[in-house]
Amino acid sequence: MQQMIWILSLLLIGIVSYLLSYLRFRTMIIRQTKQMILLMKAEENEFASINNVFDQTDVDFADLERAALSLRKKYLRLRRQSQEERKGYETVFSGLKEAIVTVDQNLKIISFNSSFLNTFNWAPTKNQSSYFLQDVVRDPAIIATFKKTFEMAEMQKNEIDYLQLFVTPLPSRLENETWCLGVFYDLSEIKKTEKIKIDFVANASHELRTPLTVIKGYSQLLLKKIANQPEYLELVKPIVESSESMSELMDDLLSLSKLDQGSYLQREKLATAPVTDEVLREIEGLLRMKGKSVVVHNQAETLFANSDAIRQILRNLLVNAIRYTGEGSGDSSQIEIHWQKKEKMTWLRVKDFGPGISKDQQDRVFERFYRIDKGRGRDQGGSGLGLALVKHHVLNHHGRIWLNPEVQQGAEFICEFPNE
After folding, report:
1. Which of 24, 104, 188, 203 has its CA 20 to 30 A from that of 41?
2. Does the structure show a pLDDT above 80 at 99?
3. Residues 359, 362, 363, 368: is their CA dihedral positive or negative?
4. How many Å apart are CA 107 and CA 167, to the nearest integer?
């Protein structure tokens, strides 16, 4: 009998334990299910019914099924939308005429478009799953630009032959990893057009220069002959002015074409006095017509530079001083040239005593086609290229040019050239 009681007691304890475990497990399942329904309904923005879930004693698993189906529909909709957007991006990406490539930090190619294939004549094979940039692009300068972008973590640009390259760092989908996006612009058509333009300007300027030289020479000779005949002087002056202006324009155009071709790179030791005298003889007629005189202070006998460039620098600065000081007498009719040695530099200073240049224009005087006085510049035949060419020549000599801000009257341009 006592043994039977023990058996029944154990059986009762087992049943109670089972019921308690079942209730505990059921409570846990209900709580987890409620949380799942809460999250799913939150995805569907059904916050109004969230509280009802926790108020219920039992869980309706139909709610879980409906929420799961709703979430699946939303997932499929977003997936389809993402695929459509990706397809659209890929269409645009492939249709761009610029060559585009994305690489990782090891220069492994991540993505590219069809223009990249055509630009570098690359045909990837199915047998090889991955490629590196150096396998496709053989130019060391391009590889170096990508590496520098990774090192500096900022956009880099470079121009290699007929290609202009921009490389920009991009965050990748992986943590602590950076990608780079390279965009190649084909400059072959632009280079071709520029060459045609340069050749045309050079040929046209060369053909026009010879007759202009004849007109200029005879008009200056005629001006000397009739210096004491005012009635004829007014007739000859326009010829001299026009020939000077046209000659200046031809020189400027020829200089531009040579600069665009990378000329004027050869430098030599020059004597400053003969160069100065030659330029003064060239503009003698303009000086006489405008009533100007030039005073030369030469404290630097030699200069290490290109002779053609130095002549044009000096000529353009003098013509600019003559034109923008007007006609007059006294100090306003004088222009000064100073050659000076400054340690390892040689300075050329050209100073006039005219009205000067206003502060708001001083930063723009070296821009191409910019005229200080637009109306007067057209009347006097200025091309607006003179000072821009001066600056270009000086920079080609690794020098500097600036407008002296401390001058009380007139304007003073200072050019600094290295002695070596």
Report:
1. 24
2. yes
3. positive
4. 12
Lowest pLDDT segment from 140-149, 185-194, 373-382, 383-392: 373-382
Which residues in 115-187 belong to E strands, given as ranges?
A: 156-160, 163-171, 178-186
**296 by DSSP, 3-state: which?**
strand
**SS3 annotation, 310-369:** HHHHHHHHHHHHHHCCCCCCHHHHEEEEEEEEECCEEEEEEEECCCCCCHHHHCCCCCCC
**Predicted local distance difference test score (pLDDT) of residue 48:** 44
- Which pTM was predicted? 0.51
**Can you say whether the dihedral through the CA atoms of 81, 84, 90, 95 is positive or negative?**
negative
* Tokens of residue 127, six digits: 């047998």
Backbone φ/ψ region at 176: left (φ over 0), alpha (ψ -120 to 50), beta: left
CATH architecture of the domain with residue range 96-186: 2-Layer Sandwich (3.30)
Give, for 299, the enclosing helix (H) or strand (E).
Answer: none
Sign (positive/negative) of CA torsion 375, 376, 382, 385? negative
Q: Is the pLDDT assigned to residue 42 strictly greater than 70?
A: no
- Phi, psi (deg, nearest 5) at residue 7: -65, -45
Tell me the pairing of strands 163-171 and 268-271. unpaired
Q: How far apart are CA 96 and CA 116, in angstroms?
A: 10
Q: Which CATH number fits domain 267-420: 3.40.50.2000, 3.30.565.10, 3.30.870.10, 3.40.50.150?
A: 3.30.565.10
Helix, strand, or coil (residue 199): helix
Contacts of residue 70, Cβ cutoff 8 Å, sequence gap at least 6:
40, 43, 44
How much is the pLDDT for 93? Answer: 67
DSSP assignment letter at 384: S
* Domain extents in the chain: 23-85, 96-186, 192-263, 267-420
Higher pLDDT, 10 or 308: 308
Is the pLDDT confidence value at 35 over 70?
A: no
Compute the average pLDDT of residues 297-302. 86
What are the structure tokens assigned to 24, written together?
A: 């505990």
Q: Which pLDDT value is given to residue 23?
A: 67
126-142: pLDDT as tens digits: 777 788 999 899 889 99
State phi, psi for 352 to the nearest 5 degrees.
Answer: -120, 170
> Is the pLDDT at 56 greater than 50, yes or no?
no
